[in-house]
């Protein structure tokens, strides 16, 4: 692979200087685009300056979502969904390591020359350090979530300069929207996009506050997840698991912890990735796979033999719980821990499961985010909220102001 000069158009553009105010101002999700000469395209590409999910769905998948189809309305364009887990999980991965396994397999078989992913900094296990990985060892070193805003696209300049022609990018929705928008400028023959869902992300300082407010031992947390059993599971250095019910969260303290970009985001399900690997539409303990197009199927096929799978399922009715959660969140209601635990047990028994749990989570976040944009950026509301999200939010009664 030979090092090449960036195209003349890009040589003229300069990345944002460290410390300067980003074009999306407080709504910047630090996706990394503006750390490169691709800042040239930011007005069009940034998910918070120019919401264009439907147009990009059309170019990525050949069609945008059919709002009449209830599954597409919620989960985006897809060929099929399933629940899966690795027969032999990767130790230390966020779930069973399906994402890392696909990426390794693609390198192994020469489908791609590099993988954009995010390792952690040497001094901080949660500090994001995006890389352009060229080996399986580098991909595996990126396993597990860095639960903070991460400038994954900051390594895009290296792609063009390296002369790489076949690339896999792993990322969350805002990163992938910007990527799709500049994809034709990268000089690639083939781009593969492996996405994860994402919600309620935080800055590194916000993460610290969240850990300190919620865990008994914030400094030993190595991994955490908001689980389908309505509890946060914190895994500690000694392997122990601490479970905190969602309903026991200190909502008042945590209201301002989420990044403004995440409070304004409606792409929870990573609509523009070829393949999405999350957990929220799967039964407890399983990962959730959404194959959006033929490229996504090609990626999944590489690892199918290593997976145990089952069809997606759906049980329960989320509507009443979502409607009740709206005023509770507004008032910052926090239950005493005994009541939160009791409520957690009850809701685990009778609450929404599988795809209905995913809809519960999407509805709760979209109603909250709609109110956030309406109150804080009313001038953006109409263009920024995609049609599918408006339809989802319209099922609920929201406060007038
Ligand atoms: C910030 C965040 C929030 C999420 N929220 C949800 C959710 O609400 N619902 C849901 O169903 N799934 C969510 N996911 C996805 C889920 O937690 C798992 O990441 C996914 O199921 C893959 O698990 P795995 O074991 O296959 O991944 P692993 O094999 O452990 O690989 C994880 C991959 O994630 C990438 N990554 C890590 N941190 C980031 C980051 N900050 N930005 C971009 N890429 C990153 C790494 O490069 C690595 O390749 C979220 C992921 C992230 C990063």
Descriptive keywords:
16 helices; 3-stranded antiparallel beta sheet; oxidoreductase activity, acting on CH or CH2 groups, with an iron-sulfur protein as acceptor; single chain; 401 residues; FrhB_FdhB_C; binds flavin-adenine dinucleotide; FRHB/FDHB/HCAR-like; Co_F420_Hydgase/DH_bsu_N; 35% helix; Coenzyme F420-reducing hydrogenase, beta subunit; 13 strands; alpha+beta
Content of β-strand: 15-25%
Could you spell the SSE succession in H and E letters? HHHHEHEEHHEHEHEEEHEEHEEHHEHHH
Order of strands in the sheet with most strands: 3-2-4-5-9-10-1-11
* Distance between the first and last residues' Cα: 57 Å
> Which structural category fits the helices and strands?
alpha+beta
Radius of gyration: 20 Å
Low-confidence residue ranges: none
Structure notes:
There is one protein chain. With 401 residues, this protein is an alpha+beta fold. 35% of the residues lie in helices and 18% in strands. The chain is built from 16 helices and 13 strands. It has an 8-stranded mixed β-sheet with strand order 3-2-4-5-9-10-1-11, sandwiched between helices. The protein has a 3-stranded antiparallel β-sheet with strand order 6-7-8. A two-stranded antiparallel ribbon has the order 12-13. A hairpin with a 4-residue loop joins β6 (221-226) and β7. It is globular, with a radius of gyration of 20 Å. The protein starts with 7 loop residues before the first helix and ends in an 8-residue tail after the last helix. Flavin-adenine dinucleotide binds at residues 93-100, 117-118, 128, 142-148, 150, 152, 170-172, 196-199, 201, 225, 277-280, 287-288.
